[in-house]
Structure formats: C-alpha cells, structure tokens
Design brief:
mainly alpha, 3 domains, 3-stranded antiparallel β-sheet, 3 strands, 7% strand, flat
C-alpha cells in the first residue's frame, strides 16, 4: 500500500504563490475590463454614426422651399360678401389673386405656356394657405403684403439638386421655362429653404409638400387615450382578482395560461379580429382611435 506524501509549503512560499495568483487574476481582470471598454466604445461609435446618418438625412426632409412675393389682398375679390367668415372667403378668387402676384414677380409673362409654367411653381394648396392667413389676420384685407407660399414638390426636388437641369427636357418633370422662372426668383432672393410649417400642422395629403404629421399624431393620442381608459382599470381589476381573490383551480389556471398566450399572438391577428368583430359584427363606426384603442386594450394584458 502506497502512501501519498503531501509537501507542506512554508508560509513564505505560500505567500509568494498567493501573490502570484492574485497578480494573474488582477491582470486578467484588467484585460477583461479593457476589452469591455473597447467593445462599449465601438458600440457607442456605431450608435453615433447611426444617429448622425439618420439626422443628416432626416433634418433636410423636415425642411422645404418657399417662394415669397407681394400679394394684393383686394377685398372685392377675396371677400365678395363682405362678412370675413370662412364661408364668405371660400367664394373669393384666391387663386386669381395669387396668380396675379406671381406674374408680377416674374415680370408679367405673356402667353399661355409661360403662364402655365409660372403656375406650376406653386403648391396646389396656396389658396388655402392664404385664406387661413386672412381668417387669422382679417386686418390685412385690402393691403399689399409679402406672402410666403410653398413650392410644388417637383420644384422642391429640383432645388434640392435631385433633378439635373442638364438632363434632356423630355426626361424631366419640369421644363426649361419653369427652370428659368425658378432661377429668376432665386436670383432675386425670393426663394428660401426653411423648416416646413406643414410638417406639424398638415395632415395626410396627396401633395407631398403639404403632408404632415398632425393627423397621425392626434389620432395616436386619441388611440392611446381610449386604450388607457379601457385597459388600465380592467387590467388592474383582473390582476387583483386572479392573484388575491379567485380560488386556485382549473378554471383560473386556464385563464392565466390564455392571458400569457395572448402575448404570442401577432398584432395583425388582433387587427383582423377588430375589423371582423367590432366593425362588421357590432357595426361600430370606422374610427381608428375608437376601434384601434379597443383592440390595443385587448393586446395590453
């Protein structure tokens, strides 16, 4: 029978080994921390690059080009009934007043083609813009004021450099006459590039220059409000009942399992269910905030 003999280290040798082990551990920990800081630095660098790319491309999208020229606000043409109400102003010739101001700014072009080219510079919502200004500032009626109009989306695209003037005219969405008029206005300093006021106060529109987030923002707020009103009291009451009051039996277990399983159901299924049940079956109004809020409340638990 062999007997294993264990060597006994002296206190000095044990201390040396312990110190060596501690130095090795400290060195490994230092390297680990260094690599961790490098990894965090790389992640933050990529994050900065990501947000820089988003902002550099997104901020110009929040701006658009405007053209400013004098407009004669003739009361007889703009407010034929003399009531200064939205109904009275709606019968006014705002398009004609704007056209006359634009023609004067361009040196009164002659001929149908030139006038048509001039009109294509402005957004189709220019008359509504001027009408809204008069409703808010009725004292301007009868005056000549400089007014700022949004340009058409094709003109805005051209001014951003996305339409090359050297491209053959037949392959461009704007012709040479329109480009000449835009150059004329730009040379006089009447074209500006600034934050779009349609972005926050405009809603869905087929005209790109007039589109904004107002409708989507207000609809989202109402949808969340409906969801909170339904989901918060119902969810809290259900949770308190299941955890504190309901007996632990087969039925409550099935209910809890089904509630947990709802988290795995795709949102599109809830959307189809909302369409089929709330709108088709119950005949609820086709209101996105109302029906959407109810469906969202069902998804919340």
């Amino acid at each position: 029978m062999t007997e294993t003999v264990k060597s006994v280290l002296s206190p000095h040798e044990a201390a040396v080994r312990v110190n060596a082990s501690l130095r090795q551990r400290n060195s490994s920990e230092t390297r680990f921390r260094a690599w961790g800081m490098v990894a965090i630095g790389c992640a933050l660098s990529f994050l900065v690059l990501l947000f820089t790319g988003i902002l550099s491309k997104g901020i110009p999208g929040m701006q658009q080009h405007y053209v400013t020229f004098d407009v004669v606000l003739e009361k007889e043409r703009l407010d034929p009934q003399g009531l200064m109400t939205p109904e009275s102003l709606s019968s006014g010739d705002f398009d004609g007043v704007i056209r006359d101001g634009l023609y004067r700014a361009l040196g009164n072009p002659e001929g149908r083609k030139k006038k048509k080219a001039a009109r294509s510079i402005l957004s189709s919502g220019s008359s509504q813009r001027l009408m809204a200004h008069l409703i808010d500032n009725p004292s301007d009626i009868g005056k000549t004021i400089p007014f700022k109009f949004a340009v058409d989306d094709d003109i805005d695209t051209f001014l951003r450099g996305m339409i090359d003037r050297n491209t053959p005219e037949a392959d461009r969405r704007i012709n040479n006459q329109v480009i000449a008029f835009v150059d004329q206005l730009e040379a006089r300093g009447q074209v500006s590039f600034e934050l779009s006021d349609y972005l926050f106060f405009g809603s869905a529109s087929r005209d790109a220059e007039m589109a904004g987030i107002k409708g989507a923002l207000v609809g989202s707020i109402f949808t969340l409000a409906v969801c909170i009103v339904i989901a918060f009291p119902l969810g809290v009451a259900t949770a308190v009942y299941l955890e504190e009051i309901a007996p632990k039996n087969r039925i409550t277990e099935i209910i809890e399992i089904n509630i947990n399983n709802l988290a795995a159901v795709p949102s599109v299924v809830f959307g189809i269910m909302g369409l089929a049940i709330f709108i088709v079956t119950f005949g609820m109004p086709r209101s996105i905030p109302l029906v959407g809020g109810i469906v969202l409340a069902l998804m919340t638990p």
